[in-house]
Amino acid sequence: MLRFLRRQKRDPKEVIRELFGDAELPSFPSAVMEVLSLLRSPDSKIAEIEFKVERDPGLSVKVLRTVNSAAFGLSKRVGHVGHAVSLLGRSRLESIVLSVAVSAVFPQKGESGFDYASFWATAARRACLAKLLANRMHPITEIEAFTAGLLQDMGIPLLAMQKSKEYLKIYASWQSDPLSSLEELEHDALGYDHTQVGAIVAETWGLPQYLIDAISGHHTWGGEHHVEEAVQLVSLIRDSEVDDGSNKLIEVGMSQFGVDETVLRDLVEKAIEDANDYYAMLNQ
User: Fold this and answer.
1) Greater model confidence, 172 or 5
2) CA 189/CA 174 separation, integer angstroms
3) Which of 40, 102, 112, 247 is the most buried (most CB within 10 A)?
4) E-strand spans in 87-175?
5) pLDDT tens digits for 173-188?
6) What b/e sequence results for 146-165 when a residue is b if at least 16 CB atoms lie within 10 Å of its CB, and e otherwise?
7) Cβ-contact 274, 128 below 8 angstroms
């Protein structure tokens, strides 16, 4: 249903209303919107960007913690936002701001029975692994791959919030069966899936096109952007104690991308370490 609606170029907000009725969806704080606007404007000054970020202490602290986390492994510590802009560039800093902002508007806990903590811990692992994989396959995209890896499944917490009882059963069924497809289970029960919902919401938020494409296509192999290669690989990592998907990722990484098995196993282990550091930062 949603693919048809998107082909017809309908207002994504109208589509969301059809899916969720009048339920209020998460939105970015005005401070975040102002920062993103400045980062995207070629006429804005670094000092303006730094001032806006620092006006929101929570955003400022988390952006700097993210940049300085083990996941990024920078050789020099970034001391202020202006330094981050100079070091990373606007578009890459925008990716980091988005990773902080989007994760902040979703709950870390909930009353529905959905395990948000486990979901975000897995998302952090995907993000860190996507960055490590991108560093080997196409280094210039590693920060974008990190953000796309973190947010690729953002449709899941949206569905858990809006369709709590029904969705909890769908998600639990997928977690217990390593061979099942979450998208197929969602389509059977709801008529649409988390990739479609996530992409529509990303569009309403005005997220960059590479993120919209990564969210909508992370389970569809092939794509126009190099960032999608790493994102599609890490989509094999599952939020499940039965099978976390690591072995499948290694198998596909070897067969489709020619990455050495030992290298892949080392990256998977390194991603777990980096993700623990990053996830702890997200929850501070």
Assistant:
1) 172
2) 12
3) 102
4) none
5) 999 999 999 999 999 9
6) bbbbbbbbbbbbbbbbbbee
7) yes
